[in-house]
Write a structure and sequence with these properties.
It contains 15 helices and no strands. Helix 4 packs antiparallel against helix 11, helix 10 runs antiparallel to helix 11 and helix 10 packs across helix 12. It has one domain.
C-alpha cells in the first residue's frame, strides 16, 4: 500500500531527500484512494509545509515536537510499556515478525519506530496492513488528538492512518479527547527537568537491572542518512533482525 510508505516518509525526520522527492510524493498522495479527499489534502498541506520552509527550521521543529516528552513519542511501545522490562521482549517479538516477513532493518533502528512500522506494513497485503494499523488504532487516535490539540499539521498523518485502519478518525479522536484535555503537557522545560531527575533516581536504584532506552537519540536520526525512495524498499540493509534482537536483550 503505497500511501503507507508516503506517510512513513512524512513522519520521519525531514531531509533533503524528502524535499527532492516532493513531486513523486505529491502525485502518490493525489492517487491514494485508501483515504478521503479531506485526508489527502491534509497530507499535501504537510508536505508543502515541510518543503516550502527552511529545512533546518523544519528539523528543529520536528525534534521539539516529537523529541520532548513522551506523549508524542514515535515509538509505539513507549506508550504501551514505558520503561518496563516487557518492552524489551515486545521489541524482540516485533523484530521476529519483521524477520519472518523478510524485512530487514538497520542495527540502529528500533523496531517500534512508527515510520519503520509503516514502511513494513507498506510491503504487506492490504488486509494485513489494515489489520496492523487496527491493532494500534487507540494509540493512533491518542497521537492524532494530542497533535490536534497543539494545532500541528502532523495530526493529518494519524487521521489518515485511522481511516486506512477502517476507523472513523473524528469518532476515534472524540473518544480520547477528554483524556487528552486532562493531560499535563510534558514538553516544557520544567516537565523535562522533572523527568530527568526521576530517571536519575531510578537509574541509581536499578543500575544492575536491564533497561530499555526510551528514544533512539533524536527522533528519526537513525534513518536520516538512509534515504528510502518511494518506489524502492531495501531488504538488504546491514544488521539482520536477529542481531538487533541480541542487542535489545543486552540493553
Amino acid at each position: 500500500m503505497q500511501i503507507l510508505k508516503v506517510i512513513s516518509l512524512l513522519l520521519d525526520y525531514p531531509t533533503e531527500q524528502l524535499v527532492a522527492a516532493r513531486g513523486e510524493l505529491d502525485q502518490a498522495i493525489a492517487c491514494a484512494r485508501e483515504i478521503s479527499p479531506v485526508q489527502r489534502s491534509a497530507l499535501i498541506e504537510l508536505l508543502e509545509l515541510i518543503c516550502d520552509n527552511d529545512l533546518m527550521d523544519g528539523q528543529e521543529h520536528y525534534g521539539a515536537l516529537f523529541g520532548r516528552g513522551r506523549s508524542l513519542s514515535l515509538l509505539l511501545f513507549e506508550h504501551v510499556h514505558g520503561e518496563s522490562r516487557d518492552r524489551g521482549q515486545a521489541m524482540v517479538d516485533m523484530m521476529a515478525q519483521y524477520e519472518e516477513a523478510g524485512f530487514a532493518i538497520g542495527i540502529k533502528e528500533l523496531p517500534d519506530y512508527i515510520p519503520l512500522y509503516l514502511e513494513f506494513l507498506s510491503t504487506r497485503e492490504d488486509l494485513e496492513a489494515r489489520e496492523g494499523l487496527a491493532d494500534v488504532a487507540h494509540l493512533l487516535a491518542l497521537l492524532a488528538t494530542r497533535l490536534d490539540e497543539r494545532e500541528s499539521p502532523y495530526a493529518g498523518c494519524f487521521r489518515a492512518l485511522l481511516q486506512i485502519a477502517g476507523v472513523e478518525p473524528q469518532e476515534a479522536m472524540a473518544q480520547v479527547r477528554e483524556q487528552v484535555a486532562a493531560e499535563v503537557r510534558d514538553d516544557s522545560l520544567e516537565a523535562l527537568d522533572k523527568v530527568w531527575e526521576e530517571e536519575a533516581v531510578d537509574f541509581l536504584q536499578a543500575e544492575q537491572q536491564d533497561r530499555c532506552p526510551s528514544m533512539a537519540s533524536a527522533p528519526g536520526k537513525a534513518r536520516e542518512d538512509v534515504p528510502v525512495p518511494l518506489h524502492w524498499v531495501d531488504f538488504k540493509q546491514e544488521g539482520p533482525a536477529s542481531e538487533l534482537a541480541q542487542e535489545v536483550r543486552n540493553v
